[in-house]
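Hey, resending since the last one bounced:
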Amino acid sequence: MLTHTHRKNMDRLTFLSGDQDFAPLLEAVVRDGMYVELLYPEGHTARDLKYFADVAKPMDIDFLLSIATEDFRRGHAFPQASWETQAEPDNAIWTWDGMQGSRMIGKGWKEANGTMLCFRTAQPSSQGHYLSVRGQDYECVKRYFELRLGSHLGQPDFKLEWERRGF
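The structure tokens again:
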């Protein structure tokens, strides 16, 4: 990488890592005039790497889906996230509570058609919207909801304790 930068064989570099050991290398290639885009694992990245890069982007699930092929996305039913103005989905039964200690953070709903699940924040954002994630697979929808909410809150390892409601 350093040799190609020095010889001007390339003018931009995309680097995938979060490891502090690469900070001196990134510093050297940037100092030599290379434009560096850093893709890093969210929540597990050395600050120096982000500092030396011209652009730093987390490789979160949304980023990975954005670079996946259309065939892959079609073949892997992935939950859909949106921001909604209603506190609860239409035609759904409240089925799970997403808790942090004694505080309810999210709610899980089973939609009337029986195949779709919907997880929403229990309280609206400052703009009056509720984060909503819909899909068919309980574990996948639950985890994606936690990832999206954690990203929104700036807590990459965000987790909730999910309790089934009494029925």
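Residues 2-59 form one domain.

Sorry for the duplicate.
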